[in-house]
Design a protein that fits this description.
alpha+beta; elongated; four-stranded antiparallel β-sheet
Length: 203
């Protein structure tokens, strides 16, 4: 759903939702002990490279968002502008890292999410149409339309239940997920004689 113009306008109107968050390109090493991590970091401070001091503990370079890292490491990486990250302990071990690049937040290119926006526009349109129809149905009911009139007008099915007893409230459920039958039933069953035939809102 959505024409080219509608998709472009929706993208611009919701620009804050279609942002790629700030990221870092980072290489890290994860050690089993704090002592090993500190020794490697000290060697880096003396001029050695992360790769040369990490051995099998080195991890491949990757691009990370703040949410994509363990909290303590995320705070160390995104809480400042350091390029060398001193040992940080997480559930995975003791990390040291080198920030290779910091990338600012930026808009996601429209072409990358055009189909997603089209589906969202369609979904919004369906929801708006549903509530519009519901409002019209309620207005007609308030003006005295019969259930048969409403069913015909809105192409709805009418379900007739006869001789429903108080201990059979489950018969008012339209499907297995409907948990409202026990609260709806008293509103139906306790109608007075002069209310017979009235339309009762069930939601």
């Amino acid at each position: 759903g959505g024409t080219y113009e509608e998709i472009t306008a929706y993208y611009k109107d919701n620009a804050d939702r279609f942002m790629k968050p700030g990221r870092v390109v980072m290489t890290q090493a994860v050690f089993d002990t704090a002592e090993d991590a500190q020794a490697a970091f000290d060697a880096m401070q003396s001029g050695k490279t992360l790769e040369s001091v990490s051995g099998d503990n080195l991890r491949p370079e990757g691009e990370f968002t703040a949410d994509g890292l363990p909290p303590a490491l995320s705070e160390a990486v995104f809480g400042g502008n350091d390029t060398m990250i001193a040992p940080v302990e997480t559930a995975f071990g003791h990390h040291i890292a080198r920030i290779d690049q910091r990338l600012a937040a930026e808009p996601v290119p429209l072409d990358d999410i055009r189909d997603d926006i089209a589906n969202e526009i369609k979904s919004v349109g369906v929801e708006e149409a549903f509530f519009s129809k519901l409002d019209r149905l309620e207005d007609m009911a308030m003006q005295g339309a019969t259930l048969d009139n409403l069913a015909s007008q809105f192409e709805l099915d009418v379900q007739v239940l006869e001789n429903v007893q108080p201990d059979q409230s489950n018969r008012l459920s339209l499907n297995e997920e409907d948990e409202d039958a026990t609260t709806i039933f008293p509103r139906v069953y306790n109608q007075t004689a002069d209310q017979v035939g009235d339309l009762i809102p069930l939601s």
